Amino acid sequence: MPPDPTPSRSTPPRAVLLDIEGTTIPVSFVHDVLFPYARAALPALLREHADDPQVHAAIAEVARLAPGVDPLAQLEAWMDRDEKIAPLKTLQGIAWAQGYRTGRLSARMYPDVLPALRAWSAAGIRLAVYSSGSVAAQKLIYGHTDEGDVTALFDGFYDLAMGGKREAASYAHIMARAGWVAADVLFLSDVVAELDAAAQAGLRTCQIARPEDGTVAGTTHRVAATFAEVSRMSGLPVAA
Ligand SMILES: CSCCC(=O)C(=O)COP(=O)(O)O
Ligand SMILES: [Mg+2]
Description:
By secondary structure, the chain is of the alpha/beta class.
């Protein structure tokens, strides 16, 4: 995307960066389906696949971050606190891969999301994902939705390798990596601290506050309950 010499908030965004949990996929799917699936699968994964290079590297990273602690116990403690730690996210992604492959997992998106993403993409709006879930896990979730494989809608996938979602520098890294101009990009998330960080980096922001997830609307960002509302507020194409 070439830089716009006169970026203006009165023009529609040229790109949209999207959080997953609570924004495109229900919190209940992540917390009641994905997380318990990974928690149940991790002991066998660590026991039986410790020689797999990705598993091996992730376990080594857990040991580096928590020296002297049993890696499985540490992972379970992080899961108890829903910590967004890269090796945990890598291992969860590996655990979910088997579930998607065998058809035991299929992702449910909020019903308003896909029509909007399709309309935005068809109009040339660039779309990218930024989630604490690993890039591999992001491609799995969007590759195995109840609506089929929707990964082709996205130009980019970004995870904690860019930095934490509550740090402004992470959004600057993503802009540099994508070649996007922050002022032209709309970031959608349910979490105010993430929106604060994105706004600090110069992105436009809109909080997604879903009644079904009980998301509490903040006071400092625009708020929408659905992607149709985002379209109307931001001048993005509205789904037919
Ligand atoms: C890739 S889906 C699972 C998302 C996940 O593991 C998580 O912790 C939620 O992160 P998000 O940044 O999407 O809120
Ligand atoms: Mg979220």
